[in-house]
Amino acid sequence: MTNPNTKEQYKILLKASLTLTSFLFVGLVFIGIFKWGEMLPFIASLFIPNEISILTAVLIGLISSLFITTIVLITFIKTRTELPKTEGSDMIKKIMIRPSGIAVSAIGGGVFEEFFFRGVLIGLFIGYSITVDWLVILISTFLFWVIHVPQYKGATRILTGVFVNGLILALLFYFTGSLIPPMLAHGIYNTSIGIILAKKYKK
């Protein structure tokens, strides 16, 4: 017979998976509206770097993930930052104690969130002027921050970190023209943080 706690964890994992997958579907709807007839070429263009090779884009993503993860960990350790006691944070703790939860976080954040917030929200609306580009980047970053507020409500340092990370990921996409760097950076960051949280909260 399935353990009630295990059953609850699987339900939470399924809920998180469906939520993250929704970013993919909403993103495809946006692309369908604004790029009807050019959906596949547009999606393909999101992964092809502007003036650098794919290998360089991969290296930028790996280096960025190392930078972001190191800065966040040092900051949180020095300030002794803890996850707030919210329903969202409790869900994160329950998800991260399983390898499958860490995988969902890495893929969901690294692929689906990046596809929507950077590839779609930025990719569809840049190219008109520098002013518009920066406005689009800031709006996308703000919306990315907003979806994380329920999880980290009351934790000012964490929410500040989410906004800064979102801005860095947006700039990675903007300056390389490819989702490869932000996807790698976000996915590896989520994996690293997930492993640390798993060790901390598995008890």
Structure summarized in a few sentences:
GO terms for molecular function: metallopeptidase activity. Pfam families: Rce1-like (PF02517). Helix content is 80%, strand content 0%.
Q: Would you mind describing this structure in some detail?
A:
The chain is mainly α and 203 residues long. The chain has one domain (4-201). It contains 8 helices and no strands. The model has no long low-confidence stretch (mean pLDDT 89).
Looking at this protein, list some descriptive labels.
203 residues, mainly alpha, globular
SSE layout and pairings?
Elements: H1 4-34, H2 39-45, H3 54-79, H4 87-96, H5 99-120, H6 130-152, H7 156-176, H8 180-201
The main pleated sheet reads as: none
What is the string of helix and strand elements?
HHHHHHHH
Counted up, domains total 1
C-alpha geometry? globular
Uncertain regions spanning at least 5 consecutive residues: none
Number of helices: 8
Number of strands: 0
Average pLDDT value? 89
**How big a fraction of the residues is strand?**
under 5%
Radius of gyration: 17 Å
Amount of helix = over 70%
Distance linking N and C termini: 22 Å
Q: What structural category arises from helix and sheet content?
A: mainly alpha
GO molecular function, one term: metallopeptidase activity
Keywords: Hydrolase, Membrane, Metalloprotease, Protease, Transmembrane, Transmembrane helix
Organism: Paenibacillus taichungensis
InterPro entries: CAAX_protease, Rce1/LyrA-like_dom
